[in-house]
């Protein structure tokens, strides 16, 4: 009796599993090519003439070559050339736009997420700039570069 109960449960499990697999969505393989591609007449003639089939090597080399115009924008964006160019322009404009007394004691050191970081040589000048001249400097830089590039300024002693 115990054996028959085990068989019945086994049959029930196997039937349940069949139901599950029947209702499962089957992938559509009709779009996939089966096996390696058949060589064209040109490829088979070249393979016979050479004594070796170089079609896979030629395909691999053909896929790796790309036009320089397609690659350069991605490379420049990865190197952040436009960002570095704007940082160098900020340094040039800083020297001409800001008061020479401030330029002698403060230098822009970088920009990150809209914040321009400026290093000041002493705490006295830091206090002077932060208290009295911060808004004027920020306004001048924002009119030159726009509010999206320079949103705020952070001064540090260094």
Order of helices and strands: HHHHHHEEHE
Number of domains: 2
* Residue windows where pLDDT falls under 50 for at least 5 positions: 1-14
- Percentage of helical residues? 55-70%
Number of helices, counting only DSSP H or I runs of 4 residues or more: 7
Find the CATH superfamily of the largest domain. DnaA, N-terminal domain
Structural class: alpha+beta
The gyration radius over C-alpha positions equals 35 Å
Mean pLDDT: 78
* Strand line-up of the largest beta sheet: 1-2-3
CATH topology of the largest domain: GMP Synthetase, Chain A, domain 3
Quaternary structure state of the chains depicted: single chain
Would you report the number of β strands? 3
The coarse silhouette is: rod-shaped
Content of β-strand: 5-15%
Highlighted features:
single chain, 158 residues, alpha+beta, GMP Synthetase, Chain A, domain 3, 7 helices, 3 strands, 63% helix, disordered N terminus
Report on this model:
It is a single chain. A three-stranded mixed beta sheet has the order 1-2-3. The protein starts with a helix and ends with a strand. Helix 5 crosses helix 7. Strand 1 and strand 2 form a beta hairpin. The protein has two domains: 37 residues, no CATH class; 77 residues, 2-Layer Sandwich (GMP Synthetase, Chain A, domain 3), CATH 3.30.300. With 158 residues, it is an alpha+beta fold. The chain is 63% helix and 12% strand.
